[in-house]
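For consistency, the fold was encoded as tokens, as this record shows:
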Amino acid sequence: MTVKLPFSKIDSEEFAEAVQLELLDRLEAASQQTGKGKARKRNYVIWSNSGKMEADEQGREITGWKFNEWDYGKPKIVLASQSRGLFTRDNKIVVRGYDKFFNIGEVATTKWDWIESNVRGPFEVTQKENGCILFFSGLEDGTLLVCSKHSTGPVNTGDKSESPEVEPLDQASSQDLSEVNMSSASRDKGGSRSHSFAGLLHLKRHLKAKDLTLRDLALTLHELNATAVAELCDDEFEEHVLAYSAEEAGIYLHGLNLNTPTFSTYPSSRVREFAETFGLRHVKTLDFESISDLKKFLTLCDETGQYESKDIEGFVVRGKTGNSSSDFFFKYKFDEPYLMYRGWREVTRKLINKGRAEVHVTKHVHITNQYLDFVEPILAADKARADKFLDGHGIIGLRDEFLHHLGKSGKELSLQEDLGNLTLHDQVQHIVILPIATIGCGKTTVSLALHSLFGWHHIQSDNIKGTGVGRKMVQEGCRIIRDGDKEKKSQVIILDRNNSNLIERKQLFDEFDRLKCNPIFVCMSFVDGDDQVREKLARDRVLKRGENHQSIKVETMGMTRVDQIMRDRCKKMQGVNKAKEPDSRFDLVIECAVAANVTWQNLETVAKEMSKEYEWTVPKLPSREEYEAAFAAALNYAPTVSNLKKPQKLKPQYVAVAVCGVNEVLSKLGSPFLAQLTRDGRVQEEFHVTLAHVAEKKNNNYHKLLSEYVAKLLPHLESGVNPIEKVKFQIHVPRAIWNGRVFALEVDSVQGPQDETLLASIDHTSLDKFLHVTIGTAEEAIRPMESGPMVQNATHS
């Protein structure tokens, strides 16, 4: 039945079919894009509402949509939707999360001066619970949809005979349901944990207390055409950073969003009434009329990291923009002790997986090393405890043991560490700044000006001759750092090269690790804006620069050659993503604008951000005159080293076919190992089939044929990847193969291109090798090349 609520439904013109279809068209178009603003879609079979961990009896699916995390919040990147957590079915939205919102000061629109000018009260402040976000919505027939941010339904929709089962609510007593162990009941037969299924089980508990069913909740949400947004907090299921006792565990409702393209949500008072109607927990809410009262309250809580004498992650603040009724959200997260606790959790995972030598501590260095000294022997002596930690259990208990050992609270320790960082009497810090950029974006001009203003060391890649440029830059940086250690003097070093892709960044980090050099890493990111705008700007600047560059000289090389180099390098750009390695090594990311006449502005941005985060690096912010003088000197810089080499004809080291449509294939597979790789961020973003490698040319004549074919199409090969977009292939994938270390798709034939010098059909026989697409590896240390032998063994077995 549809439950009568103590408030009226909010209607919207955006429920109309035409408006919903327009959004679907934009999403489909975005899924065909490459680069910035690309949408990724995947179909998911929904959960059965029976209480068993199995797929919907009718096999119904919903489509999930997601965007790259680094695309959100960029003014120059237009996304088809800002929603994080968006699912559609039958050409309409069925699950709608919040629009992406940011922490205070994280972007321009969450700085206090912007908020004070553009956001009006009353302000609703809700406590930020520390769990995993879930979405609930309903279909017309009373089926409840339960989704995590980007997933729902069982991973393996095949054989259900071994799936763990929970008695359906209608057949189970309240006592039976309360005794279910959430950690074991929410895992499939492959051992993968499902957040959405755990949420479904918790919902049954809450609804049972109100004598209601999943169907009642689903029909009510369908009538509202809304999505309930909640946090699942249950340490028995999975610990996060802050503790929840058994009495506090459950579903904490904090949002009720309309299923509309434009973000619109019910006020907190209505959310609270909805939660009470269905027996859900609701987040605590406070109201403030003025922004001054709001700031006083947040600042006071920030001093202790607590609210009502309990550690919390922070608050979410809701207001309205300008004179409109548009909802505006921002976060106010407490840095400490929450960030310190989270840091301890991550270094412990790395300690267990890779050993102490591979743990790199950049924040709370002194106290975190003390923590590691304490927990290392405990975990080494108790493998079962270490395994439980990796499974999300015992995290808080281990931390509390350490705090009890020291006899201090987390907040006391973080404040003590902060004071130590400010004085620096016996502590030397070193910072390495790595730009992420393409040619002509202004990174060297900014770097030279920073060197002039603050005396920061500037190591420029174009001034280093020979091979192994990145390695030589790191070696010089480490030499400066060690000299600083001897003199008790902190150093700032800019390693000025493009670092435009993940591989280049990883190589630098690995070299620092090899040399046992552990500075703080800061990213100076020049990735803002549209790809075409950035490419045009770079071209204009390179043309204007002419011969005034070490390795790209327009008159000597010719504009055609320079254009090709620049296009290739712009295509290889990979933006920074702090959520994944290697970019997770960055302590701070400074966003620099990429447009004409903004280099001076970028110089000021970097100086201010460094001053705010590392006060010792910028003793005093420069005056406008000082900025202008440093900027002018940098513009007049002329290189004294020329790295222009004689043109040499490169031969391809390997030839591969880039493969599209892999994610659609993966979405239809039921592999627990694939689910693990997806959850751990170990699935590759791009895929290919290697047809020939130089190491095989003695045994495989096809390498010679392909090399000659490529030479005709690309007479001037560049180092790195050289795309040939006009040549198309078709591949056939008969099956997926995995072994717990690597996951791959077997390829038994490749058709095309139609060229008499090439074989029309390429298969294992013609190449004397086993073709495959590597999807991902379980750990960074596992090399993708293991896929080949695995596919070969599977074929012979």
